[in-house]
Amino acid sequence: MEPGSDDFLPPPECPVFEPSWAEFRDPLGYIAKIRPIAEKSGICKIRPPADWQPPFAVEVDNFRFTPRIQRLNELEAQTRVKLNYLDQIAKFWEIQGSSLKIPNVERRILDLYSLSKIVVEEGGYEAICKDRRWARVAQRLNYPPGKNIGSLLRSHYERIVYPYEMYQSGANLVQCNTRPFDNEEKDKEYKPHSIPLRQSVQPSKFNSYGRRAKRLQPDIESYVCRMCSRGDEDDKLLLCDGCDDNYHIFCLLPPLPEIPKGVWRCPKCVMAECKRPPEAFGFEQATREYTLQSFGEMADSFKADYFNMPVHMVPTELVEKEFWRLVNSIEEDVTVEYGADIHSKEFGSGFPVSDSKRHLTPEEEEYATSGWNLNVMPVLEQSVLCHINADISGMKVPWLYVGMVFSAFCWHIEDHWSYSINYLHWGEPKTWYGVPSLAAEHLEEVMKKLTPELFDSQPDLLHQLVTLMNPNTLMSHGVPVVRTNQCAGEFVITFPRAYHSGFNQGYNFAEAVNFCTADWLPAGRQCIEHYRRLRRYCVFSHEELICKMAACPEKLDLNLAAAVHKEMFIMVQEERRLRKALLEKGVTEAEREAFELLPDDERQCIKCKTTCFLSALACYDCPDGLVCLSHINDLCKCSSSRQYLRYRYTLDELPAMLHKLKVRAESFDTWANKVRVALEVEDGRKRSLEELRALESEARERRFPNSELLQRLKNCLSEAEACVSRALGLVSGQEAGPHRVAGLQMTLAELRAFLDQMNNLPCAMHQIGDVKGILEQVEAYQAEAREALASLPSSPGLLQSLLERGQQLGVEVPEAQQLQRQVEQAQWLDEVKRTLAPSARRGTLAVMRGLLVAGASVAPSPAVDKARAELQELLTIAERWEEKAHLCLEARQKHPPATLEAIIREAENIPVHLPNIQALKEALAKARAWIADVDEIQNGDHYPCLDDLEGLVAVGRDLPVGLEELRQLELQVLTAHSWREKASKTFLKKNSCYTLLEVLCPCADAGSDSTKRSRWMEKELGLYKSDTELLGLSAQDLRDPGSVIVAFKEGEQKEKEGILQLRRTNSAKPSPLASSTTASSATSICVCGQVPAGVGALQCDLCQDWFHGRCVSVPHLLSSPRPNPTSSPLLAWWEWDTKFLCPLCMRSRRPRLETILALLVALQRLPVRLPEGEALQCLTERAISWQGRARQALASEDVTALLGRLAELRQRLQAEPRPEEPSACPSAPASDPLREGSGKNMPKVQGLLENGDSVTSSEKVALEEGSGKRDLELLSSLLPQLNGPALELPEATRAPLEELLMEGDLLEVTLDENHSIWQLLQAGQSPDLERIRTLLELEKAERHGSRARGRALERRRRRKVDRGGEGDDPAREELEPKRVRSSGPEAEEAQEEEELEEETGGEGPPTSLPTTGSPSTQENQNGLEPAPGATLGPLAPFSTLTPRLQLPSPQQPPLQQL
């Protein structure tokens, strides 16, 4: 198209075909039919029948793809040449320090490339100036005459193009005007395109193109001018920023008046930069991934915005003209995206595909097997590509295309010049342009002629699918071009070597694939020769494809076999010639090579890149390469003796393959003559069935086309095989006799017609004789049966014999039915007689019902009616008794054994087997055995064990018999469970991880710290549940009281030995309070799993191990307030509650001995033995024994004297005045320092408020918080005044007391003597200031966390008041001894705290672990009764020291900060 012509003229339309349904069923046959017409245009369009609408099978939600980016004006070849030219000239001026600004002439941008090209065609710049032909130049550029445009073009040429052309020609020129564009404000500044793959001039390696003066330094005198070779006048010497050469400014042509500013390049560098060859052009991938929905939204939005109208209203003609206008424009840079070449194997085809991924509907299955399905067409039997094993993507496997408006596919032909077919599933049309194969070379010549620059840098440009050229331009040079608009649901087919291109009118989805038919084979061979000349790689080996088809000619279609034979003949002749030339060259060595097993890159000719198959030349000395026989002189320079032939077939094997192809192509005619003679019996001989089958099998194996003759042969075979099968059925029916399959018999008339049919068939069957014999037997049997029925009554044996003979014939005879009725009647009466006989085995109800049902179908007679009546009466009686037994088994109110025995005795007289009666009899036997077991266990030497009673109760409850003993047993089990529950509540802590038996038994493995700790952690996690493991007793041993007592005693000794060993081990561990503590294998581990270190660690007084104070329950220093405001009992530090037992040593609540004795009294009343009861007895005996020894020790002369001195010391401390004590503290009663006594509560002091109820809970909380804070401050101030020991204990006195204390701490019982011994030992040593400080810090932290809890308790009390309060539960108090010994507001508060914890699920301050160890926190485990005033109201100064099961907040400050 001439420059300046903006109107696009659409090419003529391509042929459009609309096949009928009959034509459409054979895709490749229809394409071959239209090929003579469509091939002349290169492409054609096919519209399927209207109701052929395949469903869209792509999973839209999972379909994601990344499109290509297309800049439209870079697709067109001539426009790309112009853009490349502009990029180079822009680079030239950028190096010179100026930006290219393209001038406007006559309101359009000046085409600098066309201007430069026309100037060259007109003779050059000097010739045009000399002849004054610039007006002609303007005319050729389509500018109007008469406006002095020629002079303007000359000015622009001199200023912009001429300096660049001079550099291109090699002239040593530097432009005098270093900024030629500064005064052209109206010109358009040109910015080079930025696609990396299409930049013809790469960005410079220098950092900047700004002008920078680079003067020669005065101290460098060795630099000389490259022009004059002198180094004088160095102030006028220029240094090139590219190569560092020097030039005088007056030596340049033309000379420069002064040193230029900024970057300066010498003429040599400028020429090298501008002559750099451009890189190959290709498409860039987008960075965004799209779904179909997001791409469609983008595409529709782009089109609607571009044309400013709804997408469906834009005419296709307008889109087409606008597309070619944008493609030819160098000004407008429109970018679109195209989802091209998307693999259907990875993303799924648009057509339904038969695979195992999902189930297809019948409609989808129809389209999945259709030949027009693009997944099926390449592998149809008539297709050549079905003989290629590999799934070649794009050729055998379809590619998908998602387009938008203006997205284009460039001029190209298919790989190997194959056919292609494209189906548009949905969306806007796709515009196609096609050129027939006859004009393919003409198109290539025109494109090379018009854009030689592109082909010089990229010779295989047309194979890259990246170049367009306007169809009007091609048509103006004689190339025939056609077009078409492919709409949704239409096919477009391109023929071999037909160039085609096009673009999309809008958002659409298409699918395309290649296919090859028999007529393609010559074109495929020519394509290989074309590729050989271009040195282009092949997708597959054409020779391998031909030989593979020739190796199995019987699998080929007849037409394909003929085409392959022709191609094979040409290929063999060429191979003979090439091998002869190789022999003449002197190559005599050869070896066979299975080329098909080699990868393609290992069998490619190093010269022409073709893929070798029949033969190749290789060298022993150069094993890395080979050549085809067309380039035997290009392999290497080695001697011919070192070269050898690698061949696939010998020259003798190739003609044999040719002969097989020829036989296959000519086999149909021979076969047709044989069939015609056999069907028409022309020679008078009927063929056997095997001969006809062989003819049909030959047609199938050789893939003969379907014809009328073949259909006749199939019909004849089908009819003959049906007759043979029917005849064999008759014969086998006679052999099977009465066991033959029902429904296969034929009547006598059908047998005669069947024999006539077999005689009329054109094939011989030996079964005809068998059928004739059967017919004769049937006729004879019919006569004999008529005679027997006429002489009734006949003997039953004769009738049965005749009936059996008739059943063996396999043919229905009317007389056989009458015989059958007579025989059935006699057989049924005989079966009833045998069933009801007295000596017979009792039949079931199902048998009786079956006889009645069978009797209903027997022909009626007096004997039959009588037998049916007797059967019905017997069945009714049996069902009545069966129902009665069923009610006994299923009734809620169970019957006594005597009732059941009466029912069973009466049912025994019925001669029928009754399952429910039998089940009732078995249940009665089990009940008798159960009663015997109960009598045995109740009359034994010992009380029965609870487990045995529970087992008997479970069995008795399941029996459907009323048992009087069961009620008594259930009551005993319930009483035992009640005692166990009461004992559990007495001993076990809330949410304890131990069982009652484990708590009552001694801890036999106390010496193993790791075992003990791991078991405790397993119990915490619910992983360890064993009652008797510690005692080493089995379940059977627990039934013997003696075994339990012996094991308990042994466990006591092991526990004592173990705790001594554990104390020695833990005492050797480093103290966490020491500053030099280092982690080791012997370091203590807290219950939290961490190593306790630093302030806040506590040591257990029993096992001597260390724990975090915040992880366990710790004691409070004082459990009672001070006696009066003037005394100082607080200095009696040995009475401070500092005793700490860890949760591993203190496993239970440790109730008082009085509570345990009450449990033992209740146990004695139980008629049941429990392991826990025996363990409790052992524990009580152990506690009483220890209590006696402790009292004896405390009553000794030495200990009594020590206790007296300790009492005197405390009285002196009480008498000391404390003037600095705040007077605001209320008075409190005195308390016994050792709290000795019977455990009764001391009377309350009168100094407290008379009516504690008049104080609200909020006021109590406030008073407690204030007094508690003062108490803690007071305790902290007393620490410097503490000194000791208060007593001097001799070692002879201390050692027995310490051993007694250790044994008392092992007991899970609270004894007063334990606390007395502990206080005496405390007074005999110095006060443990570190522990006291630790306990103070923990208590301070605890008080911070208890404030919120106090408020929650107050809200709970208010809710109780609103509900009217709740009464006390005496049973609950009895089961919870802690509340028995606690009264007043503190006990109520503790109860409410526990209830609040249950309701809130542990919200509020963090609680301690369920196993606690403080002597002052669990059930007064120190063994002493509460001191007087311990249960006073919350106004007592030290009442807030009441222990709570709470952990301090981890955010509390350390001890040193308080």
Describe the structure.
The structure is a single chain. The protein is of the alpha+beta class and 1458 residues long. The chain has 44 helices and 33 strands. Strands 1-2-19-16-21-14-13-4-11 form a 9-stranded mixed beta sheet. Strands 15-20-17-18 form a 4-stranded antiparallel beta sheet, with no helix packed on it. Helix 19 packs across helix 21, helix 24 (796-809) crosses helix 25 and helix 36 runs antiparallel to helix 39.
Give a brief description:
This protein has 1458 residues and is of the alpha+beta class.
Features:
disordered C terminus; 1458 residues; 46% helix; nine-stranded mixed β-sheet; 44 helices; alpha+beta; four-stranded antiparallel β-sheet
Coarse morphology? flat
pLDDT < 50 runs, ≥5 residues:
1-5, 172-179, 194-221, 1120-1128, 1219-1256, 1365-1390, 1396-1458
Mean pLDDT over the residues: 76
Number of strands: 33
Distance between the termini: 98 Å
Helicity, in percent? 40-55%
State which percent range the strand residues make up: 5-15%
Treating each run of at least 4 consecutive H or I residues as one helix, how many helices? 44
The major sheet is characterized as: 9 strands, mixed
SSE class: alpha+beta
Rg, Cα atoms, Å: 57 Å
Q: How are the strands of the biggest sheet laid out side by side?
A: 1-2-19-16-21-14-13-4-11
